[in-house]
Write a structure and sequence with these properties.
By secondary structure, the chain is α+β, with helices and mostly antiparallel strands. The protein starts with 8 loop residues before the first helix and ends in an 11-residue tail after the last strand. Helices cover 30% and strands 24% of the residues.
């Protein structure tokens, strides 16, 4: 008499069916987790870039501009930050990088479907004393303007940069 160990075809089919049901139930909640993680990571990158810009303004004693990028330049008046941002020395305060050497930081594009907006202007400038112009709120909304996982950063005139504690954040333009 031989003892054969293993699974029968029926046992294998039942296991695969149960796994498929569990994946189908769990997949939508994983999408929400992905959106939340993506928003957290991206807003922290923006936060670090803004702190870097302020620190460079104070350290170098020069005006530093942060703006949405279009190649190696600012996005020409458009308030669309999802293509990434650049930080550069802007001595004449015209939102134009004077040379490739004046670019201090590139932040690459964010997720294609996400919305990233600043509510006041198309650029943020830090002065040598650390002050920021203009003050405002930069929002990051994964996939749609009213996503529950949306995050925001508040920038005030004194140059303070902080995460918003608001529970309901929207990237709507209206």
């Amino acid at each position: 008499m031989s003892n054969i160990k293993g699974f029968t075809l029926v046992e294998l089919m039942v296991t695969i069916a149960i796994a498929a049901i569990l994946i189908t139930i769990g997949a939508p909640s994983l999408n929400g987790l992905y959106q939340s993680t993506r928003a957290d990571t991206s807003i922290k990158q923006i936060h670090q870039a803004l702190h870097f810009a302020r620190n460079q303004a104070v350290t170098l004693g020069q005006n530093i501009t942060v703006c949405p990028k279009n190649g190696d330049q600012c996005n020409n008046g458009e308030n669309n930050w999802k293509d990434g941002l650049i930080v550069f020395i802007d001595n004449n305060r015209d939102d134009v990088s004077d040379s490739p050497q004046s670019i201090l930081l590139h932040l690459s594009a964010f997720h294609e479907g996400d919305i990233v907006r600043f509510n006041r202007a198309t650029s943020i400038r830090f002065q040598p004393d650390g002050k920021a112009t203009p003050n405002g709120t930069l929002t990051y909304c994964p996939d749609d303007a009213d996503n529950a996982s949306s995050k925001a950063i508040k920038i005030n005139v004194s140059g303070r940069i902080r995460f918003s504690q608001e529970k309901s954040i929207s990237c709507s333009t209206g």
